[in-house]
Amino acid sequence: MKYFVLFLMTAMAGSLSAQVAESEKFWQNLRQHCGKSYEGKITAGAKEGDGFTGEKLVMHVLSCEPGRIRIPFYVGADRSRTWVLTKNEDQIITLKHDHRHRDGSEEEVTQYGGQSANQGFAHLQMFPADRQTASSIPYASTNVWWMTLTDSTFSYNLHRIGSDLLFTVEFDLTKPVQSSARPWGWQD
Question: Which of 107, 148, 169, 171 is spaced 20 to 30 A from 45 at the CA atom?
Answer without folding.
Answer: 107
